[in-house]
Known about the structure:
The longest helix has 20 residues. This protein is α+β, with helices and mostly antiparallel strands. The strands form four sheets. Strands 1-2-7-4 form a four-stranded antiparallel β-sheet, with helices on both faces. Strands 3-10 form a two-stranded parallel sheet. Strands 5-6 form a two-stranded antiparallel ribbon. Among the domains are: about 150 residues, 3-Layer(aba) Sandwich (NADH Oxidase), CATH 3.40.109; about 80 residues, no CATH class.
Amino acid sequence: MSTHAQPDYASLASDIKRWARELGFAETGISGVALGQDEQHLQRWLEDGYHGEMAYMARHGSKRSRPDELEPGTQRVISVRMDYMPPGTQHAWDVIRDTETGYVARYALGRDYHKLMRNRLQKLAERIRDAVGNFGYRAYVDSAPVLEKALARNAGLGWIGKHTVLINRDAGSYFFLGELYTDLPLPVDEPASAHCGTCRKCIDICPTQAIVGPYRLDARRCISYLTIELKGSIPEELRVPMGNRIFGCDDCQLICPWNKFAQEAAEPDFAPRHSLDGAKLVELFGWSEAEFLQRTEGMAIRRTGYEGWLRNIAVALGNAPHSEQVRDALRARSDHPSEVVREHVAWALAQQQATAPAA
């Protein structure tokens, strides 16, 4: 695979971390490819059906937990992280408490990170190639079956918390991950040790009780799954607990004590667009499909699709304080072409009726 002369790999690893910092990554680590225990954990999770409609999670088989099967020849994984919490954003708890606004997960407020990080990883690979000649690599940012949190943990970037999100003791958990699979036999870093202790705040705060035990997330109950991955009807018993969360959910991270160390994003492209860090639900519900596509261009919110966007906001409007403005907005969508949208609008109108003050 490689055509490079034998470099000093320890020196190269140090250079890679420096180049990654220069490219805007907050931290870089290097791991091997052995993920045996994580493979067992993944298998149990799939057997429990916790992946819901994400059939691709099972379809990829062992490629997810065996990097050298996904990309033959892989010996090491270079993991990087990039902080995403933009400065000046409306405080998350304030938005969640203001039930007339729509809550969008903080990672999705600005530009979609996938392409941005993949481009930076590509540049990192080019810097390595300039130093050592041609070598085998593949860059991944949520773009293939990769156990990114396990790899990042093994690379020393953090530990997997009880909510199944990676936590870094110096930077909390508000960061994206990306990987460069490579055939270079670089020295590996020490894996991160875990520091959740007896804390279970993330488990207790989850609005839909999706964290069914430490390190066990039932995606079928998770608001991120319900508002993004699920394409059909949201189970009725989970609609009220969703509150005003219309794209993703951050509660388990917001409550985590380690996020007092969270770092603000240095990347200006992650700044909120269209005031989505606290926009009014009625206004968002009024967007036409053309407006939705135009205003979410280059953003992760596109993943839910226009129909999913209206479905999610309908649920939030059903949970909003009773008002004629809300009911008018819902009635205007009651004959929407989508059966899913119509069903959620009807539910929301019934909720509004149930909370109407007595005459």
